[in-house]
Design goal:
9-stranded mixed sheet; Transposase Inhibitor Protein From Tn5, Chain A, domain 1; 43% helix; 13 helices
Length: 336
């Protein structure tokens, strides 16, 4: 509880937790006994090192269950490395967390840890089993564009929009040749233009459901359409163009698919950037035993609670208010 209060107030480390306990002892004693006084930083470190991350993760999942059950819209599956959690002395690699991000809710719906990027493919099916996918569209990057993952999403009642690259060999080549052909018959098209951060981005989405020939050759689970997004970025000094290809289990219109494809990359700004810049996750040197994974779960808990708070202030401002205002911090705790 003290650790959670610390993170909600902008703290990050075991030392921060011990300082919070000491300086906020009167507040903490309103709901905790503290028979032996405020815990030391060694105590906090030891607790998170020894705490079973699966059990702690299960606590997070119970907390999120009411959101996951009613989840609609786009769910993004994406991984992130906690960069400074590696331990050279023991040969331990940096923690890699794979998260399910609810774009409409702006919440982390579930997360699971894996030791390395190559294991993300095996972690994603376990992550998906934690979620109710009915009525949702699940987006994954090209690494997780796998037949078994596609089949599981369909079996759980969801739909998918999978980025397609060369790791799928001839399937990627066939989709690219088809959608790059000027004579290819598109079902729908949509173009959007956005200007921000000193650049203009034009995004043109093309969706085609004329894929009977493709399914006959590749038999991809649940495939109903293929799509292409062409992005043209113009800035003061250069113009760049790139194209991305997708597999869809639902024949989306292009004006629906365009924001779905873009939503996948929103996880970088709305989750990963907040963890790295506003919560300093990449600078956290917790690296022993279960500490990195448990603190990652704790940060996700705190972030979700702050996201659900209706106040209009920024995330950074909410950290400060929680640190300064005991009543506000109490209101956040009541959400658990």
């Amino acid at each position: 509880m003290i650790a959670l209060c610390t993170v909600l107030s902008g703290g990050q480390t075991a030392v921060d937790m011990s300082i919070f306990a000491r300086e906020k002892e009167t507040f903490v004693r309103e709901f905790l006994k503290l028979e032996h006084g405020p815990p030391s930083h060694d105590t906090f470190s030891r607790v998170f090192r020894l705490l079973d991350p699966e059990q702690f993760g299960a606590c997070f999942q119970r907390f999120m269950a009411r959101f996951a059950e009613s989840c609609q819209g786009v769910i993004v599956i994406d991984g992130k490395v906690v960069r400074r959690s590696f331990d050279k002395a023991s040969g331990k690699s940096a923690l890699h967390m794979v998260s399910a991000w609810g774009c409409d809710q702006r919440l982390v719906l579930a997360q699971i840890a894996t030791d390395a990027k190559s294991n993300e493919i095996t972690a994603v099916p376990m992550l998906l089993r934690l979620l109710c996918l009915k009525g949702t569209i699940v987006t994954v990057d090209a690494l997780n564009c796998q037949r078994e993952i596609a089949r599981q999403i369909i079996e759980q009642g969801g739909d998918y929009a999978m980025a397609l690259k060369g790791n799928q060999g001839t399937l990627h080549d066939d989709v690219r040749a088809f959608l790059d052909d000027p004579k290819a018959e598109a079902t729908t098209t949509n173009t959007t233009v956005d200007g921000d951060h000193g650049r203009i981005e034009t995004r043109t989405a093309v969706v085609s459901t004329h894929i009977d020939w493709l399914q006959e050759q590749h038999q991809w689970p649940g495939l109903k359409a293929v799509a292409k997004v062409t992005r043209i970025r113009e800035s003061a000094d250069k113009t760049s163009t790139e194209a991305a290809f997708y597999l869809l289990s639902q024949p989306l219109t292009a004006d629906r698919f365009n924001p779905v494809a873009r939503a996948h990359w929103g996880v970088e700004n709305r989750l990963h950037w907040c963890l790295d810049v506003q919560m300093n996750e990449d600078r956290d040197r917790t690296r022993k035993d279960n500490g990195p994974q448990n603190l990652a779960v704790l940060r996700h808990m705190a972030l979700n609670v702050l996201r659900k708070d209706p106040r209009k202030e920024s995330l950074r401002a909410k950290f400060n208010i929680a640190a300064w205002n005991n009543a506000y911090l109490t209101s956040l705790l009541e959400r658990f």
